[in-house]
Design brief:
The protein has 383 residues and is mainly alpha-helical. Helices cover 48% and strands 8% of the residues. The chain contains 16 helices and 9 strands. 26% of the residues are buried.
Length: 383
């Protein structure tokens, strides 16, 4: 009975679509077997991939099939590539390094700034804390430059360059990027082999170079694999101006957003390395939309002045038996606001003697007279 019901449902849906809708557009994917056809010599970073070795060909085919099976993910790779790849290509070119290394970023994060692995690697290039700091990235509770495409790309290219100097092979350098140079070197010494394609490594690293090569094959010729994107289908390249912001004390990001005539979310999306809702005291280089850069500094000064003059916070000393919900209710503010104002971890307990900042329930709206500000903004353009 069950199969009869399913058959009847299928007939009804098909009939309805014929009468009431446009005909379905047929799929035109290439056959899986044709997708596996590699007729030209294959290289990674100028180094030949030994396709004549049957096991190597099998591993390439496996990664190609797995990538092609997940077609929505490949479409996102392609669409995001125009947003981030031009900058990565520019850095590789200026450093005289192989263009193929740009595909490492796709294999690592699918070009997502907030990607995080189970082991704690973060960002476009999936840096761990220690390695990221070793290569000059700022990583703390307030800033995490692993999420910044510009800073993290510079760090990743330096790291890959150092790994190449150590191992003398780009395939081994990329493998070391995945598993760590100490672990890879130990395997090379133990196995007496310094060729990636002949090494027995952990399963993730054994797949790693082949996955990068599969990504390269698809992105270099997407039409071959059934991906037909028009120019307007790609996500646009990053567009912004870079402005210098001086904070004399911790400053809400919403002030920056208002000065840039945009929203909090836009500033956070352009500056994914900023954690939380505030900029720390000091000087910052912030990306803002191009259309908000004119008169930005004048608006920022006025907004900052209004915000500072309207701050009438009070300090509350936590007592025995207090908890955040009760404190928020006592002062008539939301729990979320209390957490944001004090940069608290909602899962961490508060203790007697802790000091909490509490602002008035209602804030004074800020308006800026554009005509009074004049045209005296200063900004550093990104060309």
């Amino acid at each position: 009975m069950k199969w009869k019901s399913l058959l009847l449902l299928g007939i009804v849906i098909f009939s309805f679509s014929e009468v009431n809708a446009e005909p379905f557009e047929p799929f035109s994917f290439p056959s899986m077997m044709s997708a596996l056809s590699i007729t030209t010599p294959l290289e990674f970073c100028g180094e030949p991939v030994p396709l004549e070795v049957q096991e190597v060909r099998e591993r390439i085919e496996k990664e190609l099939l797995l990538s092609l099976w997940h077609r929505p993910q490949v479409i996102l790779w392609l669409k995001r590539s125009r947003r981030y790849m031009p900058y990565i290509e520019e850095v590789l070119r200026s450093e005289g390094m192989p263009d193929d290394l740009k595909y490492v970023a796709i294999a690592e994060s699918a070009l997502r700034p907030h990607a995080r692995s189970r082991k704690g690697a973060v960002g476009f290039w999936q840096f761990m804390n220690y390695t990221g700091r070793q290569y000059g990235l700022v990583i703390n509770r307030r800033i995490d430059e692993r999420r910044n495409i510009f800073a993290s790309t510079q760090a990743a290219i330096r790291y890959l360059s150092d790994l190449y100097d150590t191992f003398g092979s780009w395939a081994l350098a990329a493998a070391a990027y995945n598993m760590g140079e100490v672990g890879l070197n130990a395997e090379i010494v133990e196995q007496g082999v310094n060729n990636y394609y002949q090494l027995y490594l952990n399963l993730e690293t054994q797949r790693y170079i082949f996955r990068i090569i599969a990504i390269k094959l698809i992105l270099e010729d997407p039409a071959k694999y059934g991906f037909y994107l028009a120019e307007e289908d790609y996500y646009p390249a990053l567009s912004f101006d870079r402005v210098r912001v001086q904070c004399f004390k911790e400053t809400p990001i919403r002030i920056i957003a208002q000065a840039a005539q945009t929203h909090f979310k836009v500033i956070k999306d352009l500056n994914p390395e900023i954690r939380g809702h505030y900029l720390t005291e000091g000087n910052h280089a912030i990306l803002i939309p191009k259309e908000g850069s004119e008169n930005f500094q004048a608006r920022y000064r006025d907004l900052l002045k209004h915000w500072s003059s309207n701050q009438k916070e009070q300090t509350y000393l936590v007592k025995e038996g207090d908890h955040l919900t009760a404190i928020a209710e006592r002062f008539g503010v939301s729990l979320a606001s209390l957490i944001i104002w004090n940069r608290l971890n909602p899962k961490a307990p508060i203790h007697p003697g802790d000091r909490l900042i509490i602002y008035p329930k209602k804030s004074v709206p800020i308006t800026i007279d554009e005509e009074e500000n004049g045209n005296n903004s200063t900004s550093v353009k990104n060309n």
